[in-house]
Amino acid sequence: FAEARARELEFCSPVRRAASVTLAAPRAASSAIGRATDEAWQRRRREVEQVFAGDLEGRPDRQKILDALDLLSHGRTWDTMRYAMQLSAAAATDLLRTSIEAVLIR
Length: 106
What we know:
Elements: H1 2-23, H2 32-51, H3 53-56, H4 62-72, H5 75-84, H6 89-105
Helix pairs in contact: 1-5, 1-6, 4-6
């Protein structure tokens, strides 16, 4: 999962960063870009829920773990690792994998 998500996030990074500038404008959330961004987030969250369904099943903290997994694999988190933390794509992927494992064994 970490490797596949990292490839997708790295590939989409320029578009995501451009969209974030546009979304900073007033009323941008209701724009076509805002709707597309929200739809992409919803799709990725559903994917996280499907991929980790077995890990989440029966856990009393299911929602909290799902939220953490969603946050860890979010585009903004990826951009923070790549640009603010200046990690290489390989190092960011490794950090994503390590963080997911840490959340799941909690």
